[in-house]
Amino acid sequence: MNDWVIEAENLTKVYRMGEIEVHALCGLSLKIARGEVISIMGPSGSGKSTLMNIIGCLDRPTSGEYTLDGERVSELRDDQLAAIRNRKVGFVFQSFNLLPRATAMANVELPLRYAGVVKARKARAQAALEAVGLSERLHHRPNELSGGQQQRVAIARALVNEPAIILADEPTGNLDSHSGEEILHLLLNLNKERGTTLIIVTHDPDIAANSQRIVHIRDGVVAE
Amino acid sequence: MRLLQAVIEALESLAANKMRSGLTIIGIVIGVAAVIAVISVGRGASGTITGSIEGIGTNLLFVFSGSSSEEVRNTKPLTLSDVEAISDPFQAPSVIQVAPILQGNGKASAGGENTNTQISGVTPAYETVRNTTVSEGEFINEQHMLEYASVALLGPEVADRLFGRREGLAGEMVRIDGHPFRVIGVLESKGGSSFGNQDDRILVPFTTAQVRLLRRPAHGEVDMLMVQAASSEAVAQAGEEISQILRTRHRTEIGADDFTILTQQDFLETVQTITGVLTIFLSGIAAISLLVGGIGIMNIMLVSVTERTREIGLRKALGARRIDILIQFLTESALLSLIGGLIGIGLGTVISLAIGRIAAANNTQLNPSIGLDTILLATLFSTAVGLFFGLYPANRAARLEPVEALRYE
């Protein structure tokens, strides 16, 4: 079991708020295996969001080593980080974050566009939407879709570039319990079928119970 | 392909805020339309004036008595013997013809109608030198000169005022300052121009004007000479020859000429300088409104960037690089001003054509000329304005930190 998709060594993150230094991460280490389903839990202020931002390559650690799918992220420049996010990370947000004026297809095509995919774009976007069960809703705009359907579009967008990890931040937080369950099962199925590593940040113990491993974060470190 | 995609996306985004985009575009429309209208009308005016100066004749020199630059005492008038000397092909080989002119104002009347007009005493040479044509009748000839004939050629406007028509006037009688004159013809209309109204005047034989109408003393004094040079290249040479002759004849001191020679080229250059300066000046004022329009674009783009902070964060999370975001917003601002520019070109064209019509309705020839270069310049300039004023907001968007932007409410 040496195929780590994520290796984080001794991560620290310090925010400077005027005179005060806030230590969001204090030497956190974490390894996640390829194909794993893992939940990250922790109270607000624990450094959970900071960890998620670093894992998703939206932010860089102040110190420490972070390797995502073989790339040493801590050393990369902004545009290289953007490329990593594009190819290796699929984000699923609590509030869906779809472009309101764009159709489901256009939303899913967006990561492909930034990846420079031209020819296969339509076909791949369509395939991704079919994989989440939205083949009937390709040309609907977000306001014509239910919350569950919107989150499906977001999931299709996350997996269209075949990323190494899918990073879901409270993916069911804005949904009723029924569609929440559907979304969770969709994510678990994708993990099962495609072997995509699934990292879920959540408060909900029921969701966490579905994962293979639960990591609790407290005061900027992993609480065992 | 990527550019096309960016343009389509930008158009969608602009269409989502039609009112706002429209108002921003209007700012550019006004600026570009003003610039186009000013430049094309300016060119039209310059063309009209140039045309009317060229219409006076070709390769002309004008000789006046008196110096324009220096204080010269004992100015001697130009006389008919000066004319004779200049007409001598041995003394002035570059000169083809000389037309002496006497000028004054007089009152003409016919059939109870009265009008004040310009009276010119001219010789037959005037016809070719001044490029004058008669629409009816004949020009003044040598016979008239010798006989001090009481004959007159009417300008079309004078004919209108005295007789209410321009045809069938040969043989009619007019009184000029009380003296009866027989009309021998009507001049072709040359239109009003900067060079005095060519249509509002009466031509009479030089000799007649000398003794009867304008009553100049016997020395054969002349108000002005019009001299035609052999060719456009010979104009300068002719000027030199005339100067030499007059200096000798008037016994002027060196560097103290008591006459002034102007060429048609001098007039043309003066006029072109004046219209050029005016056009640049007015375009400058018009360009200020384009600048204001550009600031409008910058303002609206800043608002747009703030509004779409979350969207920018999302795009960055999905892998958009700085350059992608920069291009997205620059495309929007460039499109705003390009669309404004295109509409502005249309509006400016309409305005300048309307000005041309209004001028025509007021009997002034003015053909606004909208050149391809003007249109290209306006298009490029307005797009550049959009890019320039879009750069700051777009750069601000591109520099947003993805984490901050995603968290923005």
Structure description:
The complex is a heterodimer of chains A (224) and B (409). Chain A has 224 residues and is an alpha/beta fold. Chain A is built from seven helices and ten strands. Chain A has a six-stranded mixed sheet with strand order 6-7-8-3-9-10, with helices on both faces. A four-stranded antiparallel sheet of chain A has the order 2-1-4-5, covered by helices on one side. In chain A, α4 crosses α5 (147-159) and α5 runs parallel beside α6 (177-194). The longest helix of chain A has 18 residues, at 177-194. The two termini of chain A are 20 Å apart. By secondary structure, chain B is α+β, with helices and mostly antiparallel strands. Helices cover 56% and strands 18% of the residues of chain B. Chain B has helices at 2-16, 18-55, 80-87, 125-129, 142-147, 156-163, 206-213, 234-250, 264-307, 309-317, 322-361, 372-398, 402-407; strands at residues 60-65, 78-79, 95-110, 113-122, 134-137, 151-154, 173-176, 179-187, 201-205, 221-222, 224-229, 259-263. In chain B, the strands form two sheets. Chain B has a six-stranded mixed β-barrel with strand order 3-4-9-6-8-7, surrounded by four helices. The A-B interface holds A 53, 56, 58-59, 78-79, 82-83, 85-87, 91, 93, 97, 99, 101-102, 110-111, 113-115, 118, 157, 161 and B 1, 5, 12-13, 16, 310-311, 314-324, 401-403, 406.
